[in-house]
Amino acid sequence: MENQMNHQPQDGQFAIQASHMDIYYGNFRAVKDCSLEVLPRKITAIIGPSGCGKSTVLRAFNRMNDFIPGCRVEGGILFHGQNIYAPDVDPVQVRKLIGMVFQKPNPFPKSIYENVAWGARINGYTGNMDDLVEETLVKAALWDEVKDNLKKSALALSGGQQQRLCIARALAVKPEIILMDEPCSALDPIATLKIEDLMRELSSNYTIIIVTHNMQQAARASDYTAFFTMDPDRSGIMVEYGETSQLFTRPRDQRTEDYITGRFG
Amino acid sequence: MTSIARENLFKAPSRMEFLKKRFRKLEFGIQAFLFFCGFVSILTTIGIVFELGKESLLFFQTPGVNLVEFFTTTTWQPSIGQYGVLPLVTSTLMTSTFAMLIALPLGLAAAIYLSEYADPKVRKVLKPILEILAGIPTVVYGYFALTFMTPLLRGIFGQQTVQIYNTLSAGLVMGIMILPLVASMSEDALRAVPRALREAAYGVGATKLETSIQVVLPAALSGIVAAFIIGISRAVGETMIVAVAAGAGPKFTFNPFEGAETMTGYIARISGGDLSYDTPDYNSIFAIGLLLFVITLGLNIISRTISRRFREVYE
């Protein structure tokens, strides 16, 4: 696998771009006309009340919604000039470049080592696996805690360690973009801070999109924030998108202001 | 109970009295009943083992019968005093092996298809059909073996090679009989694997096949092994198909095209016959029954050990 930096677009270009995207569950339109341009090597947070389609949008970025029966995406997502929903695009290939970290830590019921190595192996990695595992675990700030127990089951780790292992697992495939779906919602505040520090470090090499319920987290940890809410027919819509510092201090939309000041949601 | 408690609350007697431990009749009664239900199955097992053991002891006390001869000689002809159980054991092993060669791989493949690949609509139709297949009486399968599978085998391998009664035909049909059981139980085990684990695999760019075989299957292994154990136990214990299609009369052979009586087939024939009580022939069926019991018990223990070592617990 080549260095992922070569794949990164030039500064000023977008890492990935949703344009006029509608997402349906059966007949229900869960997300309406969403256009979101994500900048490379930045952390973009998606916030909003429950049920506003944040996770649905996030999962659209690597076609994870394909596994939900009845889910349909209209409009498109541009990635390296290619609409990832075009019929000739292979979703498996998309997910090799756009990794994901889930809400609840979900390590494989295998050893710590195998959790990191598995993704690389199925993707045809031929280099030294021990080196890759170490390098990746170091990047995920987990190496020092697990280096003597690599053969132990990943399920013996604490929740916070498991989540960093899941981040390592995503990194081992050398993606360009990492999607994080409320990665700290099952963690205590200390583990949460560790993940946030880690995100900050990773953002120098990776584009990160994170869905979070926690507004403080978005304010602390992200460069850009998109605020979603529900319109009257319960479809999710993007209200406002901008630099995090601007959105939290000088929101342009009344609904954003109501939400971030706690008058809604 | 609750009414008493409430009454006491309102009358507000001494709180000390209120907090005293009390006897709850209904609670106790139901608990005792549940315990009894569980105990019945244990009692039954003990009863069966006791009866088998007692009658087997009678058999082994018969003049001319001894344990070494029983397990090492290869002729089973009680009428002339030859008590070597091996021919019955080998034919049981043969029919069971053929059955498992069909049921395990096909059952597992069907389970993976149903759980991981099949469209929900397709599964909704296929699974009940599979379960109906499991409900067909085994005697029907026996005649299916005799009137369909055997002629088929004779057509393929030649009339001279394949006898009318043969262990291959019985074993293959037994495999078809057990297949739905293995498939259905394995599918339940696969489906019980949380979706989060599949998503984790897809999230690192795994294909459906990689996800199914390398992530979902290991996570469901203990359930799948349990399905295999039950499948094997059924094959070893299956009686009707072999009684109909595998042939009567013990024969020490490893030729799948020859007829040979299995342990269960022998027990069925003797217990249905007109042999008088307390003859060595009659008593021998208890010894064989005990041996069957020990074999399935051993299989259970082995498979449990295997699954404990290799399973990947996901919670």
Give the SSE order of chain A as H and E letters: EEEHEEHEHHHHEHEHEEHH
Quaternary structure type? heterodimer
The CATH fourth-level homologous superfamily of chain A: P-loop containing nucleotide triphosphate hydrolases
Structural class of chain A: alpha/beta
What's the average pLDDT of chain B?
A: 88
The dominant shape of chain A is globular
Strand order of the largest sheet of chain B: 1-2
Number of strands of chain A: 10
Write the element-wise H/E pattern of chain B from the N-terminal end onward: HHHHEEHHHHHHHHHH
How far apart, in Å, are the first and last alpha carbons of chain B? 39 Å
Share of residues in strands of chain B:
under 5%
How many structural units, i.e. domains of chain A? 1
Strand proportion of chain A, as a percent range, falls in: 15-25%
| Main sheet properties of chain B | 2 strands, antiparallel
Largest interface: A-B, 30 and 24 residues
| CATH structural architecture of chain B | Orthogonal Bundle
CATH third-tier fold name of chain B: MetI-like fold
How many whole angstroms does the radius of gyration of chain B measure?
Answer: 26 Å
Tell me the radius of gyration of chain A.
Answer: 18 Å
